[in-house]
Model the fold of this input.
Amino acid sequence: MKKYHVAVVGVGVVGIEILKCLKSRSFPIANLRVFARSARAIEVEGIEYEVEAIGDERFDGVEIALFAGTEGEKGASKLYAHKFIEKGAIVVDNGADFRLEHDVPLVVPEANRDAVKNHKGLIANPNCTTIQAIVALCGIHREFGLERILLTSFQATSGAGKKAAMKLWEEARTLVNINRNKEFDEIHKDVDSEFDVFSHQIAFNVIPQIGGFAEDGYTSEEWKVVNETHKILNDDSIRISSTCVRVPVFTAHSEAIYFETKKDADHAQIEKVLKDSEGVKYFADSSFPLPLEVEGTDLTYVARLRRDPFNKNCFWIWVVADNLRKGAALNAVQIAEELTK
Amino acid sequence: MKKYHVAVVGVGVVGIEILKCLKSRSFPIANLRVFARSARAIEVEGIEYEVEAIGDERFDGVEIALFAGTEGEKGASKLYAHKFIEKGAIVVDNGADFRLEHDVPLVVPEANRDAVKNHKGLIANPNCTTIQAIVALCGIHREFGLERILLTSFQATSGAGKKAAMKLWEEARTLVNINRNKEFDEIHKDVDSEFDVFSHQIAFNVIPQIGGFAEDGYTSEEWKVVNETHKILNDDSIRISSTCVRVPVFTAHSEAIYFETKKDADHAQIEKVLKDSEGVKYFADSSFPLPLEVEGTDLTYVARLRRDPFNKNCFWIWVVADNLRKGAALNAVQIAEELTK
Done:
C-alpha cells in the first residue's frame, strides 16, 4: 500500500484535530510535516510534533497538504496553497477562500466523493454548519429530491477557534468568582471579557450573528449554508435559507432542519433513508443526541424526525455533529483518503 | 377610579414577577392577598408580603385572582380556580390546564384583547413561547394573513421554574470549581447535578426537548405553540409547527421564526408593520437584541427581518422577550388591566 508525504498547515483547534484524525484513522503516512506561522514543538495525545515555520517555504516532496484554516483565521491558504500545488502537492483547504471557485471541488464524501477526481490541485472542505446538514440530507435528496430547506443552527464557540471557546470558559469562570458568596437571586450575569471574539458576552447568552452582515440582512455564515449546499448537491434549485446562532456550548453544532421533498415521501420512507445513510447515526422515537455527548465523535447524529402535520412532504429533523471533527478535520482527512484510493 | 381586591396565587418565579408587575404598572389595588401552598412572609423589591396558605380557602372578597402556575408546576388552578370563581373572582391562569377549553378565552392583549369580554370567570394566559411569537406576528397576520409559520426556539431555563435556572448556575459553578487549576484543554465538561429538572446537563449544552413527547414525535411545548396560536389568532388554517429547545440562558427566550404571508408582502411592508406593532421594539439592519439584555424588560424585541431569497412572501425574524414577564407575569397583569377597563 502506497504511503504519502503529508503536511498539516495550522495548529489551531482544527489543525490539532487533523493530527488526531490522521492518527486514529491510520492514514497511510510516509512522512508527516506540520507547518504554522512560527516554529515550535507541540504535543498532541502524547505525541510530539515538530512545527516548521511556513514562511521558510520548504514544501518539496509534500504530496497531500491539509490546510486547517478555521473560519476565523483566513490567509494561510491564500498565501501558500498555490506554492504547495506548484511543488506537486494536492491541497485540501478547510478555509472559506476557495470553496465557491468554479474549478475547486467542494466535497462531503458521503454526498459527492466523486467530485474529488475533478481537482486541479485544490479541494475545498465545506463550512462546518453545511457539512452536517449535507450528511443528514444527501440521502433524502438522492431518493426524493429536496424542494426546500430551512435551517436554524445552535453553533458551538469552538467553531470560531480556540480563543472563542476560551472566552466562554473565562466568562463563566469570572461570573462564578464574582458571585461567590451571593444568593442565586442576586447573581450578577454580565461580565467584561478580554477576548476579542464575538461582539457580545456568550456565557448564558445566545448571539444571532455568525460572520459579517450582507446588505440583504443575512450573515456570511447563512449564505455559506446556501451556496455550499447548492454546490455540493450540484442543484441550485433547492430553495434553502437559514438563521445561524452562536450558543454557549464548547464543541458540537446542533441544527433544527425543516425540509420539503420533491417526490412524495412519508415518515417511514424518510426514516429508512436516514437509518441507511452513510455517516449517520439515527435516533428513533424520543431519544436524541446532545452536543456534550457528541464532542470528540465522528458521526452525524440525526433525531426527532417529525412530519409537518399541515404540509405534505415536509419534515423536521434535529442534527448534531462535532464541528471540529466531521465539521472540519475529519471531513478533510476523509477527502485525503479519497485521494489515496 | 375603582380599585380592586386582587389575589396572587403562587410565589415561584412567575408569582414574584406578577407582584413586581402589579407594583410597577400601578395596578389599581384596594387590597392584595398572596397565596401559596404554605403560609410565610416573603420580600420582593423591598416590600414584605404576607403569604397565606391556600388550603385555608378563605377566598371571600377577591375580585381578580392571578394564578402564577408555571409550566412545570401544575395543580393549583385545577384545585382552586373554581373555588375563587364561585366566590365571585375572575381568575387569570398562567398554567396550561384550561388554555384550550372552549369557554376559556386565551389572550395576548396585543392580538385579541376583546376576547377577554367572553370570559365565564376564567381567562387563560398562553405559553411563554407562544406569547412572544404572537406579539411579533399578529400585526402581520392582520395585514397580510399568515399562511405558514415555522418556529425554532432557544428557551431559557427559568421557563421551567427557579429550580431549573438554579440547576444551570450550580452546574456552571461546579464545573468552574472542579476545573480550578486545570488548563483549558483539560477541563472536564460533564457534571452530576442534584436538581431533578431536565433530563440532562444544561450548562454548556442544549436539550431539544421541552415537555413530554406525543406519539407523533412532537413535544407538548411544540404542540402548545400550534394550538395556542390557532386559538389566539382565531384561525386554524395557519400551517404552523416548531422545534423547541432549551439553552443555557437564565431568562429570556429567543426564537428564529420563518413565516409566509397569504397576501403579497415585501420587506418594506413587513418592516413597517413591525415598527408600528403594539408591544414590539423593532431592530433595523444589523442590530439585534440579546437575551441577557432583555431580561427584566417588558417588550417583545424583533430583529433580523430577511426576505427568503427563493420563496415569495416568505421571511425570517429573530424574536426575543423576557419569558417571565411578557411570556408570563406581565401578560397576565395586562389581561387583568383589560378587566378593569
